[in-house]
């Protein structure tokens, strides 16, 4: 059984409004939404969203196109994309890490025996921002991780201005991260991944 078929909350969600309201006025049809793991074929779409989201803010991307392909080949099961009518609108890419804290090597390595999921990047397409999609996608991703028997916690690093966003998602700050990118410094944050038995009983995991 594939990971996707085992997880009901990753299956397509078709959102359709009634054709007409009680007053007889036609309502807009909402697009169908789908959450699924990414594949290497999604790499270009991922990079286009990421490049626009990050270069304007920090001047660089967390992952370049070859690195995106690298992780989507090694561990596609640790990614999650949100598609609307087949169009990628938001995504997360992660890999496994085997130490308590992130180091410079975590930027490019996937440790198959690790129990920490390093979230490299979360990005939302510019036309879909300020709609809460980043928070919703992160919630779905954390629920997904709870169904992976090897996952014990999620780790990420972010700039100071993003700390409140991730705190609202349930992450706690661990302090300054030893990883630097150019002149950028980061805060390291983590989120315990709990509830394996509960999720298996109640979500088909």
UniProtKB/TrEMBL annotation:
SUPFAM superfamilies: Acyl-CoA N-acyltransferases (Nat). Pathway: Aromatic compound metabolism; melatonin biosynthesis; melatonin from serotonin: step 1/2. The keyword Phosphoprotein applies. Residues 33-194 form the N-acetyltransferase domain. InterPro entries: Acyl_CoA_acyltransferase, GNAT_dom, SNAT-like. It catalyses: a 2-arylethylamine + acetyl-CoA = an N-acetyl-2-arylethylamine + CoA + H(+). Its EC number is 2.3.1.87. One of its GO terms (molecular function) is aralkylamine N-acetyltransferase activity. Its main location: cytoplasm. GO terms for biological process: circadian rhythm; melatonin biosynthetic process; response to light stimulus. Keywords: Acyltransferase, Biological rhythms, Cytoplasm, Melatonin biosynthesis, Phosphoprotein, Transferase. It is found in: Cytoplasm. It comes from the Eukaryota. One of its GO terms (cellular component) is cytoplasm. Belongs to the acetyltransferase family. AANAT subfamily. This is Serotonin N-acetyltransferase. It comes from Corythaixoides concolor (Grey go-away-bird).
